[in-house]
Specification:
This protein is mainly alpha-helical. About 80% of the residues lie in helices and about 0% in strands.
C-alpha cells in the first residue's frame, strides 16, 4: 500500500513540475488559441509517430 502511495505522489509532483515548466517557456503575447493548437498538433504528431513505429514493428 505504501508503494502505491509513493507512486501517486511521484506522478503528482512530476505533473506539477511539467505544467510549471510549460507555462514558464510560453512566450509573452501568445494567445490561448495558439497554445491549444500547438498542443493538438503535438499530440497528432506523437500519435502518427507511434502508429508508424507499430506499423514497421519497431515497437
Amino acid at each position: 500500500m505504501k508503494e502505491k502511495k509513493t507512486k501517486v505522489i511521484q506522478i503528482i509532483l512530476a505533473s506539477a513540475c511539467s505544467i510549471f515548466a510549460t507555462f514558464a517557456y510560453i512566450p509573452k503575447g501568445t494567445s490561448i488559441a495558439e497554445i491549444i493548437s500547438a498542443g493538438v498538433i503535438f499530440l497528432v504528431i506523437i500519435y502518427f509517430a507511434i502508429r508508424a513505429l507499430k506499423y514497421f514493428k519497431i515497437i
